[in-house]
Amino acid sequence: MSECRFNIDGMMCASCAQTVEKVTKKLPGVTEANVNLTAESMQVDFDPNVTPVAQIETAVADAGYGANAQLTTENFAIDGMVCASCAQTIEKAVKQLPGMIEVQVNLAAEKMRVSFDNFVTDNAAIEQAVTDAGYGATLADEVAHPEQAEALAEKKDHQLADLKQRFIWSAIFTIVLLYISMGHMLGAWLPSFLEPTLHPVTFALTQLILVLPVMYLNRSYYSVGYKTLFKGHPNMDSLVAVGTSAAFIYSLINTGLMMMTSIGFHDQLYYEAAVTILTLITLGRYFETKSKQKTGSAITKLMDLAPKTAWVQSGDTYIEQPVVDLQLNDILMIKPGANIPVDGQVLSGSSNVDESMLTGESMPVAKAAEDAVTAGTLNQTGQLLIRATRVGNQTTLAKIVKLVEDAQATKAPIARLADKIAGIFVPTIMILATLATIAWLLTGQSLAFALTIFVSVLVIACPCALGLATPTAIMVGTGRGAENGILVKNGAALETASQIDTIVFDKTGTLTKGQPEVTDWYFPGLSTAEKTKLQAQIASIEQGSEHPLAAAIVAAAKQAKQALPTATALHFIAGQGVTGQVVGHELAIGNQKLMAERHLSTTLKQQQSTFAQQGKTAMLIAKDNEVLGIVAVADQVKPDAKAAIQQLKAMGEKIVMLTGDGAATAQAIAAQLGIDQVISDVLPDGKVAAIQSLQKEAQVVAMVGDGINDAPALAQAQVGFAIGNGTDIAIDSADIVLIHQDLMTVATAIDLSQQTIKNIKENLFWAFAYNVIGIPIAMGSLYIFGGPLLNPMIAGAAMSFSSVSVVLNALRLRGYKPKFQRAL
């Protein structure tokens, strides 16, 4: 059980408080709910595994109030994990803390993400709980403190170098030991004093001398393995420690017997098995660690975009100082060829800036005074002087890194079965190894035979593969998505996106550009010169209006570089249009109602109808009481919209357009794009109901919107795609943010999610299959039917290979390339 505080909005009296309490207590998993009307808060005791926080917030919202959990979310770097059992142990220990809502430990990233009520517990308590479980935890806010990321990277590099050195020295002693212990079986030369039949004691003592350095070099397996075993939560190191200890102790006893009795027990020595297992497992762990570093390369690449130092104005000069020390409104000098360290505004200078990391566009963008620049982008040609507007973890780049980090720290629902098995895996293996040993002894087999079974079962079992199967694929998949402008917020969204069968697109700002543009100047009977002159006059009249249609006309005139004459006697008529005088002529611009009010007839009704069918707004133009023509304005379809829709349809997705526009305009846009189903005349608060209606007919509904007025609908859909604008990427209501504003990335995001989930399934299949097949073989199943007995050294090699193979399979996603090219 956990407890959590919620801020409650909208309560007016004690009756409101009672209502909120009642609806909350009715939820399964909730044992107590106490509302404080004065503080406008509620404390709830509940099981977050039965009723998530979001469900409580929804229940209160359905009752007519607002509820927001007072949760703090933090990431911690975890030391000492070696397998999935370690991750499960840490999760269980931290979940027992009061006020803890959610705990997710990522074995591949060696991180833990927690959500908790900071009124009840704190970071120190969390770190202590991890320490008490036998591991280490350090708060890892790498975005706010990049030096932490550097320290963690250095630590992992040191760990990798240590594993490499351990393996090299272990391999040297192991090869010599293998030659001495097994060479004579293959006819290899041995000096006479090492001949086991002539000098068995010397033969055994030489092996003992060679095995001790290897065990010392790999002593961490024993210190960690036995520590966790005695604490009651054994891990992979426990299996290795117990298995190799059994082989070593059995061999040591036989060595002692030889020394005391002079009887040859040289064929009962298993020193070489112990050191070979340790060496192979160290080699496997080296490859696994090296591979895991590559899974997080996307974050490293993103963080490397931001320079470590910047040139800051100090009086009449500029000094170089660390980026972490920069403050708001600092004046920075950006030299040509340098990455921009913060979000800012250009004060002086001009240059071309490569913004491909934000927009996906390879062409640089010209920047001059008053233009905005973004952290991580590359200043190419000129020197810029900028004022810092966002620094530290508030920059766009930092927010992107934070989103990717959070996504990589989460789990996908597909991992639940593996997590459950990992929680009991090691104790189960130890029981199976013991039972198999006893069973073979009862059948009359020798102690040496039974020992082989015991050691083989312990070292072939691999909970690591189960624990790495999901997080490695999610880390690589979400990282590859970030490199392509796709920010997936969590593992659950990644998995759900792979199952989408219906996609709902908002029209304005998503399928269309979101701002009206002049599409037609229809003036039959006027010459080109007359038409150009009239266009300038119309724009001069509209220049005084703030209406979006007027802005479109003025923008078109400015684009044509037309000089606008002075307009006078302007008169704006709500719902009709505008009138005014220009160079001695009276102009009227508006709809049919405006013309009727002025008793002006027109013969352009057919053309008006044509424009309406095309989804355009037609404005009639009258000059000196004569209707001369029409200016047609429309919110233009984005260049890549049609290709994106066709690609999604080819992938088997059902496409729906949702808009507040009238049916005629909506159908016209849908016809241009090839969309079959249209839901029109929908007010903003009706979009949620429209999504709910579609969810009754489909399995998984996705919503694609601009993340502003579409927020409720994005939240209602199983997967919400928010089209970012390159800098506005912190969109809370969306599950996936597309920062390139490229609609084709919707198809890419779905395809990437499908490929990632496919990779996870492959990893899980291999992890389960390996253990299901390998453990019975180690227990002697083949021997029963006349087959061979599994050598413990081969079992150790197989265990190491299983973990490495899972990570290498996940790394294949690094080569993922979008199949769908954006429309240019």
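the 2nd protein, sequnce then structure:
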Amino acid sequence: MGNEQWARADGNARITQVAGDHITYASGAGPAPRALLGLPDAPPALVGRDGPAKELVGLLAEGGPPVVVVAGLAGVGKSALAVSTAHRAVELGWFGDRVFFLSLRGYASDGGVSGPQAVQEMLRHLGVRDTDLPESPEGRLALYRAKLAAFAQAGQRVLIVADDAGAVGQVRDLVPAADTHRLLVTSRHRLVAPGFAGRVLPLDELAEEPAAELLADAVLRAWPDDPRPVREPEALADIARRCGRLPLALAVAGAVLAGDPGLSAGELAERLAEARSRLEALTFDEGGVPVGVRAAFDLSYARLPADQARIFRLLTVNPGPDCRTEYAGLLTGEGEDVRPKLAALVRASLLTEQPVGSGRWRMHDLLRLYALERGEECAEEDGREEVTDTFLASLCFDSEVAQAVLGVNGPGSSGPGLPSVAQALDWLDTERPTLVAAVGFAADSGRLDTAVTLADLLAPYLQLYGHVQERLLMARQVLAHMRTAGTPDDTGVALCDLGSALGQALHWPEAVERLTEALALLRETSHREGEGRALNLLGIAYAATHRFEEAREAHQGALDIFRELGVVHAQGTAWVGLADNLQYLGRTDEAIEAHRQGVLVMRVLRDRHREAGALGGLGSALWQAGEREESLAVLEEALAILRALGNRTRMGWTLNAIASSLLSTGSSREVRPRLEEALSLFRAAGDRHGEGTVLVNLGVLHQLEGRWTQALEAHERACALLDAPGEPTGRAGAVRALAGTLGGLGRFTEAEEAFERAAAGFAAAGDVEREAKCRQEAATVRELARRHRRWWHRFTR
């Protein structure tokens, strides 16, 4: 009897018995084909991502973590980085054809692909037909893990790219059990949860140059011969900045330019300059469907719980670039409990803490505009107006405390409950961008009295500690609102503030115009104290423009008014201004006496800041009078006061003054450490004018010590730093120093040309005396060059 043979076929299978069972499949039956290398195409260019790409490749290599999550703001380029890196891993031969891609749509309104659905989709990719899938999710998960385990046993690595996950639940079951495989996830959230050990790789916006390059690349891909990237590089860079260097925004801007070849980059930059309409401008209509930044942000915002959404909206009440935790608690009413909710926004890539652990929170620029839109929509619900009043009142109070401790208008306050000088200064330095922005914000929102109060509190600090541009911006903002909503007296005072700020910024012609306008207005309204202040400031501006006699009359007029009114502190400032002017006029003895009067007034009033300033002027006058020992002692006294006050900018100028005095004697003793400290202070503050001025003296020191090459480097750098509008005298001085170095190196023709340029600079500044001296020096060098050429000609014969 022959052997019985049994076989069973399912579905469309058919059994043919030959010698044993041989199973064939009808069309559409049998194992499904695997989705080999199911990756989308790599982006044409991965611009500006060399660092993250290198790090991610390293994480996918053997020995890396099983799970990597590329997290970041919507539109920051997470998918592009992940797909590009997956292609790179294939090129390296790490995963063979076992690379799979899943689009999870985690931020879709329906929640996207669930965790069990993701496992089922992966089984399909691995060649399992739906008809062969286990019925239960647990069974499918077990089969998925078995498949991965089989690959691992065979020494074959698998890479799964799970794109756009919205929650850990979508990818938790995809985590490979074997360390040999990799799961690469992209998400707007930093996916962290108990039992889910994924390495998070946060992705930020691009740097400036790569952002502009990406924008140009988007245009040139559509129009390879497009002249705009070459013709308008600055406008493209401006567009990139307005886009917050966010790849999605750059892609939209690039599409706008590519879609309208006649639109100049400059025109698009102008459209994007208006913050209120920027998100609308960064929208591209793609077949009736708006594609852009706002739509991408909508998906993230929709996922927020109500309490986090409210915090997200209210953080924009703070007009500064970032927000400290204490102010976030004040804005939201959460108090000390706000940090966990801020951290939740960080995990959602809607906020960053920079640096980590600092307690300072920042939104991307475009995201902030989006949050502001949502905040204004929900203003009544959130109590936005009341929150704004509370926040601005807090800034005013904290500023008043800090100014009182620093003593910017008199004796400094100290005692229990008050911060130290260092703490007050640290708070002002840290919050300065927010405080200055708050002045404009208060004025724009109709809170002009609050804006003026805050500006008055900040102005002395900004002036005394050398924050010139912030002071100038604030003064312009206040004046603009005063011209439309203020009284004539208020407008005159605002004009004085702007004139003072313009002078500190070395914009002397405009300073004279504004102060002249202020003087006329304040005289018209009989505001005597304001008139005196305008005169005193005009005296400073007149002296800076070499109108010395007019300056003397202005200072004397101011002093007379302040004496009449009995305003002692203002008398001290007038004495100092008059003393400086007398010194310019060469009336040194009178200048010394006036300086001593200024020092005395400020010392009696215990105004340490202005006492130090008066001492600096006295030291200069004493040196001019030949009283060098007393001069240096007075300057050292001023330096000690400024160190105690933490005034690094004015310390730099005082150190430079001491070094300059010593250099004028031809001595290099004790000069170098003072110049190096001054240089360090100015560089730390980003003060180009101060740095350039110190480098002039450092170059002279190199000359005295015979280091002519180093002197040339210092003077060339000084000329570059001082080559800015408003600095004609400083620039001319640097060019003159360079000319001397070139002469010392025997480069007489270049030296002559430099002396002539310096003379022209002094002439433009109205400094006739130094112009004449430079002309004479040019003639001297010209003669040296002539003699050198004659000697060289005779030598070569």
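The chain is about 65% helix and 5% strand. Residues 410 and 605 are 6 Å apart (CA to CA).
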